[in-house]
Every structure is written in C-alpha cells, then in structure tokens.
Amino acid sequence: MRLAIVSDIHANLEALRATLESVSADGVDRLLCLGDIVGYHADPEECVALLRRCDPICVAGNHDRAVAGRITTEGFSADAARGVAWTRKRLSAGAVRFLAEMPLQACVEGAVVAVHGALLPEGGCEMTRLDTCERRLRAFEALAAHPSGARVCAFGHTHRLGVYELRNGVFRSRAEDEVALRDDALYLINPGTVGQPRTEERRATYVVLDTARCTAAVKRVEYDVSPALEKARKAGLLPPRSSPIRAVTGRALRRLGLYGPVKRFVRSVRRGTA
Ligand SMILES: [Fe+2]
Fold this sequence. Notes:
Blueprint: E1 2-6, H1 13-26, E2 30-33, H2 44-53, E3 57-58, H3 62-67, H4 78-90, H5 93-101, E4 105-108, E5 112-115, H6 133-144, E6 152-154, E7 161-167, E8 170-174, E9 178-180, E10 185-191, E11 204-210, E12 215-221, H7 226-234, H8 244-255, H9 259-271
Parallel strand pairs: 1-2, 2-3, 5-6, 6-10
Antiparallel strand pairs: 1-11, 4-5, 7-8, 7-10, 9-12, 11-12
This protein binds fe (ii) ion.
Fe (ii) ion binds next to loops.
InterPro entries: Ap4A_hydrolase, Calcineurin-like_PHP_lpxH, Metallo-depent_PP-like, Pesterase_MJ0912
Protein name: Metallophosphoesterase family protein
Domain Calcineurin-like phosphoesterase: 1-212
C-alpha cells in the first residue's frame, strides 16, 4: 500500500490544491490526514469539501476539535483562538459534523498508527507536541505497546517535518528524503505542514509511505502563497501586510537560517520568558 500522509492544512486552499495534485501524480492508494484541516487561513469550508472528495482517513487536530466545540481554546495562542472563532461562524453544519466525528486515533491496515499530536501511554493525542527527545522516546514506548503491532506512528501538530527511528535502543533522526524502513526498528513520522509553515521550509510538505517497499519518501510542493495570505489578511486572521523593512529583514534572516531562532527569541521576550 502507498499512503500519502498530510497534516496541518489550516484552511490554506492553494496549498491543499497543489499538494493534492502532487499526491495524485504519486499514484497513491489512500490519503491519510493527521488533522488541523481548519484554523489560521480563510478557506475552511472549501478545504473540508476538497479533502472529503478524496475519501481520506482522518484524525482530529486540536483546531478541528475546537471549531467543532469538542474542546475549548484554552491554551491556544491569540491568533489561533481568533481563527477558531472566525471559522466556527462560517462553516456549514455538515462540515462541523465531519470535524466533530473525526477520531483522535486511527490505525491503517495494522501498519500505521495515526494521531495529530502524540501517541502517549496517558493519551492527550491532539494537544501534545512531540518536540523533545524525551517525549519522542515515550511515544516510541507507546508505539511498541500498541495492540495493532504497527511499527510506524504518523503524527503532526508541530508543523515540522521529521522521520525518527528507534533501533536496538538507539534513537536517531533520519534526514534523507527517502528513508528505507527497517523491520527491526520503530518509526515516528511527521509529514510537516501543508498550509502553515513555521520553519525556513516555505513549501507544502507531505510523506508517501510505501508499506510494500518499506520506504518513507518526503515530498515538497511549491505553490503561490500570496492569495492565501491576502484572503487571511482581509478576513482579519493575519495582521496587515508587513512593512518593506520587515519583509527585507525577514528574507535576509531566512537566507542566513536565523529566521526561526530570532522569531522564537522575540516571542519569548514578548512573553517575558527570555
Ligand atoms: Fe496545526
């Protein structure tokens, strides 16, 4: 089986269209969506409808659950909470029902366990970020104990692409674009984000998992991000266009690979935690 794994679309229709075109060219058997279909961008109804036409296997993300009223926005950033409130007012009842009915966890043919945030012994699948080695090791423990016997867990939520391997008690991150999956190892696979990049990688990313060839291939898709940003600004979901000086500074920092660290530092100063 060839499985296209996508995550964190966040109502970015242009990114989703480009990604699905690429997925279609890959000739996969099934689409697996790891949640956060909505939130942040301005085309939630269109994204839900387009995705549903692909008959995907879906698990719920925290934004999907908040929009569907299954959780509150406590713990969400101000931007995220604003996006949830905006989306809730605009989605059709059918789309809300679809989001509300998505499970927190799915198992695909006994080969892949899918969650939005993390597979952990204590649960909390959709809100926990697997962004530290300690949490990833606990997720490996939960995967090893999973009743399905699956050796792969697919997760999203961090918006960071990554393939992590645990073999003979040794943990490592695999940086290749096509990873050969060993049958004596366990894997955590994060396909990154379709619609809301938070790293220097601005393209949409996803992963094609081939369970017969035992490979996980990273895919990157170029698309024009301007229409989605413009619609989000018009809807009040993003601040107005940044000044030319900020734009030039941002481009220069990205080129130097410093955009992420500087952004995190500025955020921590604003929060008073630097
Ligand atoms: Fe997300």
